[in-house]
Amino acid sequence: MSENNVLSDLEIAKRARIRPIEEIAEQAGINLDALELYGPYKAKINPALLNLPAAKPAGKVVLVSAMSPTPAGEGKSTTTVGLADSLARAGHKVMIALREPSLGPILGMKGGATGGGYSQVLPMDDINLHFTGDFHAITSANNALMALVDNHIFQGNELGIDPRRMTFKRVLDMNDRALRDVVIGLGGPAQGVPRQDGFDITVASEIMAVFCLATDLDDLRTRLGRITFGYTFDRKPVTVADLGVEGALTLLLKDAIKPNLVQTIAGTPALVHGGPFANIAHGCNSLIATSTARQLADIVVTEAGFGADLGAEKYMDIKSRIADVSPSSVVVVATIRALKMQGGVPKEDLKVPNVEALAAGVENLKRHVGNVAKFGISPVVAINKFSTDTPEEIDWLLAWCAAEGVQAAVADVWGRGGGGDGGDELAAMVAAALESPSNFHHLYPLEMSVEDKIRTIVQEIYGADGVEFSVPALKRLSDIEKNGWSGLPVCMAKTQYSFTDDASQLGAPKGFRVHVRELIPKTGAGFIVALTGAVMTMPGLPKEPAAMRMDVGPDGNPQGLF
User: At 250, which helix (H) or strand (E)?
Assistant: First the structure.
């Protein structure tokens, strides 16, 4: 227990009563022969074996997003869990669909992805560490592909692959800046063909994106086959299908592709599956998990990574184009602390009441709320309550929301739990929003050029004056057009901390331009990644990684895990 007698997330999780996963499955309407147990509290679901009532309409989707993240923390996952628990408490049949955490930020600085306080998904330690091995399977499939590619080059290179024009990297589920750029194949002819290479973090792998956007096993195989991993000497794209190994990669992922079933502290069923980051990838849990949850529940509460400028935009412009999972309601999470930080208050002073800074920082929230409305949905603001929030600050923010015509509710789900009454008001607002008509639409049509899609995103969502393309990016635009990929949506890779591509520019900046340094076609996933600013696809560890505080006790239980 901490010095101020507040239990840590791990202590709360360990004191919670966790039910056998078979009970959670029965509650969710999952027949036991569709369940594959991973111990007493985790299971995979085989969607092909589900016995589903033919007349049941698909559940409505609630998408939880947030204002721009800050080191103060916004609690998006906590709010997602608490909201779902509160909807269940009100009598709705609810399921949660979340991403799996990556080990890199867990050992680094970001923390876990299972919520917090009394609004957590359990078993939180298992989920935040190796879970059911999905990330290991994705890492293995990614690296198997590159081993097969390099072996093909070594064995005679029948396809004519140009080692200088590889667009696919090996991956590791770890923050390791030393592996960003490496040289492989050294040591003489028997060790392979030397070439420049590098590592991305697993969550940035295109195989992760394919995994999360596939509709079933056959679609997974097809998408894997479409992956472009490089170009020939005459600059033609080379795909996994050209190499003939999409079957082997599918084999490595055949078990991982099944969604993972767990539970919240309050006993709400949760599917935790897949985990691309939203700053360097598309930021949503697997489509299979979301679709499965919609088949089982009346309401599915899901989230998209980081702020609404990243994860929510990608959910609505990428994920929602592939299957019928468009949201009927969007929640934007905000905190008094984060708004004050957006208003210029340093982290060490956030506990001090400061309505003036709150008024300055609320411009960040205003832009996010306005962005959600551009998709035809009226958002609900969830004010995630912290103990340091004053009544004056909360009242000011509620009054601001009312003046802006935005529904808002205080959610005290960290301390009181969604199973308690901490999220009742928010749940009632969301339930009402689900019954209200919406006019969901995408931000741009696929027929628009890639250049204009990027320009639309940076102007309409980020508030930029325009976009600047580097010379390599302009060359890639030409290649994209020539290869017939211009009809794909765009996945922006941008810092999560700012609407700009400069992480230090907080609030709601104006008068800036976004700089696109490279474009990478992800033909298997089905989108074009636009790398902006200095964003990295392999993060580094901070000076004092969270791993320095972690250990395992004599009873085998983890210590220092949040």
Answer: helix 246-253
